Amino acid sequence: MAETFDGAQYPDIKRITLSGTPNNATQVVIQGSAKTATVRFETNAGKLAFEGTDAAAVNAAHILVTADASHQFSLTDGLGVSVGVTSFFIASATASTVCSVMLEG
Fold it and tell me: What whole-number distance in Å separates Cα of residue 74 and Cα of residue 104?
């Protein structure tokens, strides 16, 4: 099920329990002016994609994210201007993995 950040404050953090079905994507919807996102998959590795469908198999174009390490990525171009990223997708090959997501403005 999709998780939506309201953009009311930064930093903003959510701990998301991913699908009980392995490799099913959870959409993370970004509202407001977030500039940076950090993801951390707890105990199990995960996958990150920028295209996909919520609650469906994770897109084939994804990157693998190691477990128990923070991975940060920019949602803006080099000048700090939003490049239109309004959501991303996270998934794990292991059912019910917890993923922490932090957005910064």
Answer: 10
